[in-house]
Design brief:
The chain has 268 residues and is an alpha/beta fold. It contains eleven helices and ten strands. Bound molecules: adenosine-5'-diphosphate and magnesium ion.
Length: 268
């Protein structure tokens, strides 16, 4: 191989190793209706990827492809390939429970279990066999709450119901619950849409901190939020991926007119 070719191959390998998840020709159908059309999108390691676009364009559908949450919708069918560290997550031998421990999810509306704060967090690690002794459970609760920026607020009431917390605290509890099983990727579907601006700012700050240790994909209808928290942005429209790239570029100099129109508030 020539020197230039070697260099190119090395660059390509480095780029490849920065990819945590990859969707290739992902198409999704709900019954007869096609919701996503041949989407090709990479999710980079230790960065935040924002999925934007008008309501109904397929953001949540794509997000759910990444941990096979669409499997839970009877009429939903997924074509194409999604890989995690290069491995097809739709392959027959994949254990979906294990997959969802590696690719966790936080939903739009905070949904703590109707149990104590403590129980909300140890539930996942326990069913995945990651903890068994009381000391291990205490440790995972404390560590997860610290990472979610919630420990100081709740440390004196770990046995109280999670549902008794404020909306913003509940959402950070759900993030702590997701973190507790040591996922590699965290999917968030409009995690701040039910929160006030102060709680939203806290969650956004948290997302920025979490990026150091996790790979994050966030659906948001807020352009400002996408610009604030993400490094990469993917713009969807009517089930198609219109454009994706560095967030800075997407918001200052997008290639596509649809992206331009959407980020400047001309539709959506
Ligand atoms: N469970 C479902 N059953 C049938 N159609 C659905 C379902 N979920 C989403 N869709 C349809 O798929 C398309 C994309 O939806 P969705 O992924 O929720 O968009 P977004 O998150 O961008 O608002 C929409 O037309 C929506 O009506
Ligand atoms: Mg959605």
């Amino acid at each position: 191989m020539s020197e230039a070719a070697t260099e190119k191959a090395v660059d390509a390998a480095i780029e490849e190793s920065a990819i945590k998840m990859r969707g290739t020709d992902v198409s999704v159908f709900y019954g007869e209706k096609q919701a996503l059309f041949d989407v090709n999108l990479d999710v980079r390691k230790n960065s935040v990827t924002a999925l934007i676009g008008p309501s109904g364009c397929g953001k949540s559908t794509f997000l759910r492809c990444l941990n096979r949450m669409n499997d839970t919708i009877d009429i939903c069918r997924v074509n194409g390939e999604v890989t995690l560290d290069g491995e097809n997550i739709y392959a027959p031998m994949i254990d979906v429970v294990e997959l969802r421990a590696r690719v966790g999810m936080v939903f739009q509306k905070p949904n703590p279990f109707p149990k104590s704060i403590y129980e909300n967090i140890v539930y996942g690690p326990r069913i995945h066999g990651q903890v068994s002794t009381r000391a291990e459970m205490d440790e995972v609760v404390e560590r997860s709450l610290i990472k979610a920026g919630l420990f100081n607020e709740v440390k004196d009431r770990l046995q109280e119901p999670g549902t008794g917390l404020s909306g913003g605290q509940q959402q950070r509890l759900c993030i702590a619950r997701a973190i507790a099983v040591s996922p590699e990727v965290i999917l968030m579907d409009e995690p701040c849409s039910a929160l006030d601006p102060i709680a939203t700012a806290k969650v956004e700050e948290l997302i920025d901190e979490l990026r150091v240790n996790y790979t994050i994909v966030i659906v948001t209808h807020s352009m400002q939020q996408a610009a604030r928290v993400s490094q990469r942005t993917a713009m969807f429209h009517l089930g198609y991926l219109v454009e994706e790239g560095d967030t800075d570029k997407m918001f200052t100099n997008p290639d596509n007119k649809l992206t331009q129109d959407y980020i400047t508030g001309r539709f959506g």
